[in-house]
Amino acid sequence: MKVAVLTNAPVVLSQTTEDGEIEVRISGVTISFISRAVTLSDTLPIQVKSSSHPLYWFLEGIVGAWDRVTGANKGIGYAIVKDLCTKFDGAVYLTARDESRGKTAVSELQKLGLKPNFHQLDVSDINSINTFRDYLQNKYGGLDVLINNAAIAYKHSATEPFGEQAENTHRVNYFNLLDVCHSLFPLLRPHARVVNVSSSMGHLTKIPDQEIRNKFASSSLTEEKLSELVNQFIRLAKKDEHTKYGWPNSSYSVSKVAVSALTIIQQRAFDQDSREDLVVNSVHPGYVKTDMTSWGGHFTAERGAEAPVYLALLGPNISSPKGSYVWHDKKIVDWVHGPTPEAF
Ligand code: NDP
Q1: Domain map of the chain by residue range?
Q2: Does 180 contact ligand 1 (Cβ within 6 A)?
């Protein structure tokens, strides 16, 4: 079978079958095909009415499925895109807040023969998030994989006051991730997979106080209550009283604990969702050599991408991992009680 995919919209596929050449046009959310021999220049739209037609699934695999990674112009996000481009049967989007850095990353991947797409996305800008959502809605009508990778971490040498660090870290790592989810979750299709990149620092035992841990682990925790917990930490951090009240002295750690707690809440909601088989997990990618760790990690970015990509490509109707906290070796770690394996 010969297949040519032109990525400029509308997507056109040319396929040789036993019946002869078939020209296919996909416009917006409409999957179309022409069940007769046509020339390449014909792009007559005809809807696939039955999902039992073999072409339907063929097209679903190529066009209906697409994926997006936030903060992917470098580090683990870049390696995730690279790996997904070889393993994922659909369009892969590398997003970055800085268009020129993002496009440079895409052209590096193109030199390797890969075909990622690019779209600007600043997770700290709600207009940017919603612009991207509308683009995806119009072009694909849905979303199959979402990897929330973008995050920041202040260096130990940072001179900004701790309260300011706490506010900015949670803004990006927790609240902006939440914004992305609120905007893009309505696009998720049945069997969609969401990966929230957490950290070994996101294990619940990183919070010293048992009462606070109980609040994070509560089965009645909601997004609103979780955000309020996070805001409590920020308020105390601004008064430099956070350790006195049982919080750790690391904003990054609290932000990642919040991301893993959010993942559990999100899976609870997915389990009640009318869309079938939605799965979200959080992951510790390992201790990885990137800008974030000042290149002090033990793993390459490619190794760090392994568990996130595994979670992004979980097969249909799996029973586990689901709402889990997953280690870089793909094993599920008990987020509440531990123990936590070595971080690398
Ligand atoms: P990097 O600092 O190398 O990459 C972080 C990425 O996030 C960059 O692409 C950065 O873009 C992007 N980003 C930051 N803020 C925004 C924003 N507002 N909008 C869009 N993108 C943004 O870090 P890593 O690759 O190491 O980290 C990737 C993920 O892995 C993070 O979630 C991190 O917390 C997690 N992690 C990393 C570990 C490690 O050892 N490296 C260990 C455990 C977890 P820009 O270039 O524009 O700043």
Answers
A1: 3-11+64-159+172-203+255-326
A2: no
Q: Is 297 in the pocket of ligand 1 (CB under 6 A)?
A: yes
With a 6 A CB cut-off, is 76 part of the ligand 1 pocket?
yes
> What amino acid positions are annotated as catalytic residues?
252
User: What's the predicted TM-score (pTM) here?
Assistant: 0.83
- Report the nearest-CA residue for atom 31 of ligand 1: 151
What is the position in ligand 1's atom list of the atom closest to the CA of 252?
34
Q: What is the pLDDT along the chain (344 residues), one digit of tens a residue?
A: 223 222 223 333 333 333 333 334 443 323 334 333 333 333 333 333 344 444 444 443 333 345 667 767 899 999 999 999 999 989 999 999 999 999 999 999 999 999 999 999 999 999 999 999 999 999 999 999 999 999 999 998 999 999 999 999 999 999 999 999 999 999 999 999 999 999 999 999 999 999 999 999 999 999 999 999 999 999 999 999 999 999 999 999 999 999 999 999 999 999 999 999 999 999 999 999 999 998 888 899 999 999 999 999 999 999 999 999 999 999 999 999 988 887 55
304 contacts 288 by C-beta, under 8 angstroms? yes
293: CA distance to ligand 1 center in Å?
Answer: 10
For residues 102 and 50, give the distance between their C-alpha atoms in angstroms, rounded to a whole number. 38
CATH dotted code for 3-11+64-159+172-203+255-326: 3.40.50.720
CB neighbour list of residue 259: distance below 8 Å, 6 or more residues apart: 148, 173, 174, 177, 196, 197, 198, 202, 282
